[in-house]
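Sequence, structure tokens reproduced for absentees:
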Amino acid sequence: MILIADSGSTKCDWIQLNQDGTEFNRFKTMGFNPYFHSAEVIHQVLSKEANLANNANEEIESIYWYGAGCSSPSLNLIVHAGLEKTFHKARIHVEHDLIGAAYSTYRGKPQISCILGTGSNSVFFDGENAYEEVPALAYVLGDEGSGTFLGKRLLAEYLYKRLPKELARDFKKKFKLNKNDIINRVYNQPHPNVWLASFSKFYGEHSDHGWVREVIREGFVRFRDAHILCFEKANQVEVNFVGSVAWHFRDILREVLEEEGIEFGQVVQRPLDGLVDYHLKYLDVLQRSNINT
């Protein structure tokens, strides 16, 4: 059997395929990011996963993992070690989630593929080779337009007492957070990026509010300018997206891209199905791919 995993920092989507490519099982776990999770944590969580308990060591022959934070050989080794402890007989392939996004949105022609979810990033992909033009700087320095970007902006404006009154009132009622709660959660607790990104749901609940749309738009403009227009062929190829933020606010995203003459392509909320299609069609390409991220 083949196991394909698409892991963000928040959640991980899994699919098990029979050798003939038919679907055997599909499930979810928490997300794993080697910046925040050790190999032992990955192993402990997966070893308790009911969907894997009976066949993980015996029946899984190959694993293709596409994950947030898997941006260097040393980081990839953390995930690889965690998977290897769980799947003793499997051949394990670990790649960045950005490569997963490129595979998932590929439609037979060169493209720019972007992630706009908990974090944000972009890559140029021609079908075999993938290139980043600028790095992703994560939630402190970067992640423009992402869930963490939106969360940081919302919390800061709330604490500065600059949120529109009706939004501030609803925020206070819904979350019951004071300054100390927020500071402690951001600076002293694990996985602050995931917590910050969780506030993107608040934007969705108020998506018709002018302030909300303006902040989302600002984030997308920053993302466009930093992570799309950096590519020489930005105005010559289709630009595609994966991620919940891109999906839920795709009308604003389209406007922001089209203002600069950028071809707005598809938005995929969950890239797992596209990953399956790519693996079935281009397995030979996977085996000789030249990924430079």
In short: The chain is about 45% helix and 20% strand. The mean pLDDT is 89.
